[in-house]
Amino acid sequence: MQRLHTPTDAARIADEAMRCVILQRFAELAEYQDFTFDELAEFWLVESGDTIEQLETATEVPIVHGWFSDVRYPDPDFAPAWKSSKRIRPATRWSL
């Protein structure tokens, strides 16, 4: 698991499509010149072998645990800690 703080960190991503997506997001965030990247967003590259527990510990964000209760995913009363997510299509390519 890797946390990506800057566009330079994205150079370590072996998958070209994923690297392009992350670089595009950094380019979009660069428009907010009064803020650092870390103030605007966090990028975590989850790798094969990483567990949900490791991700929750590293990010300090409950993923399968509730914020305000012990309800866990996939319980129907589970409420995620995020608002939305975007699906990335592997075949999509961006150029910068």
Work out the helix count: 4
Q: Using DSSP, what is the number of strands?
A: 2
Main beta-sheet strand count, sense and barrel state: 2 strands, antiparallel
Question: What is the alpha-carbon Rg in Å?
Answer: 15 Å
* Cα end-to-end separation: 25 Å
What is the molecular shape? globular
Low-confidence stretches: none
Helix content: 25-40%
Question: SSE string, helix = H, strand = E?
Answer: EHHHEH
Q: Give me the secondary-structure category.
A: mainly alpha
Identify the strand order in the major beta sheet.
Answer: 1-2
Mean pLDDT score, rounded?
A: 83
% residues in beta strands: 5-15%
Can you offer a commentary on this structure?
The protein has 96 residues and is mostly helical. Helices cover 31% and strands 6% of the residues. It has four helices and two strands. A two-stranded antiparallel ribbon has the order 1-2. The longest helix is centred in the N-terminal third of the chain and has 14 residues, at 16-29. The radius of gyration is 15 Å and the shape is globular. The relative contact order is 0.19.
Quick recap of the structure?
With 96 residues, this protein is mainly alpha-helical. It has four helices and two strands; from the N terminus they run βαααβα.
